[in-house]
Amino acid sequence: MNVGDRHYRTIWLSDDGRSVEIIDQRWLPHDFRIEKIGSVAGIATAIRDMWVRGAPLIGVTAAYGVAMQMADDPSDAALDTVWETLHETRPTAINLRWALDEMRRFLRPLPTEQRAAAAYRRAGEIADEDVELNRAIGENGLAIIKAIAARKQKGEPVNILTHCNAGWLATVDYGTATAPIYLATEAGIPVHVYVDETRPRNQGAQLTAWEMAGHGVPHTLIVDNAGGHLMQRGEIDMVIVGTDRTTADGDVCNKIGTYLKALAAADNDVPFYVALPSPTIDWTVHDGLAEIPIEQRSADEVSLVWGKTAAGEIAQVRISPETTPAANPAFDVTPARLVTGLITERGVAKASREGLKAMFPERA
Ligand SMILES: CSC[C@@H](O)[C@@H](O)C(=O)COP(=O)(O)O
Predict the structure, then answer these.
(1) Which residue numbers mark the site Transition state stabilizer (predicted)?
(2) 308 is in an annotated binding site
(3) What b/e string do you get for 299-330 counting C-beta neighbours within 10 Å, with b at 16 or more?
């Protein structure tokens, strides 16, 4: 998507043909910084410390990490080691394991001297495929927005609530939850997005709001606790969120707080959609609550908040007593029964084993 008048993806191969450049998301919306990363250790840090984040982008970044390892040492042992090193950076988003598995499956049969070039090629393809998947999700979600718009007065916007950042910053381009929103805006369908701030890291306030502003999408930032109130007042037409892992039975794991939005949506008959590319489906998991590992992040993310001071400095402030402990589970699981539909690259699936099987018969 565009930053100013320039088109960016979130990750691209450097001119040296070996490193990658990424948009460093730690500083947004206050500062737009590009980082160059040329080692597996650098890739692991960028994923773990959330310079890059969002399930699909984590996967693509890891794929490039495998390529860097192959350029240094293309042996089978090194392939297994880089899989382990990168896999442990973040536990919940399944796209990380999907990308690492795909790279290893593709590289293992090749002679070692061909692996580095092949790995960079395959990582680039995975990045391009992500863009195509998201574009298709956009088309399928656009049909839902159009149907809601058709029931409204002419010119009245479709009000969409979203949580966390499942925008182009969380993918290579377009985003998952935001792709239908961008396509609706391009098509001239009036939309208005309520952006959940998404404590503790504020991906909504910092990233989704920045994306919406950058693309001229009318939007309003709300605190996480406001969504239920707005739904009770009929001010939300639909919810669209992303997901870090969706089970073969349609349970949806996503940023902490998603479950509460789904409960409020169900209580108020507001359709609750989840947008996802198929690499986000974990076909090996059936019971999301019991089986998906939930990342426990640092308590500092709860007790300390980043922002920009009046003097223009990007700084962190403490919001709780020094001695108060904090817990920081980063994701929760929304049971399939609360999900209206899964917007995939192939169409909108029912959030159930049968729905996903019908959409992806070759994988189920
Ligand atoms: C297209 S992204 C879907 C999810 O990855 C997104 O909603 C999310 O929860 C991201 O969490 P994050 O912890 O910022 O990586």
Answers:
(1) 164
(2) no
(3) eebbbebeeeeeeeeeeeeeeeeeeeeeebeb
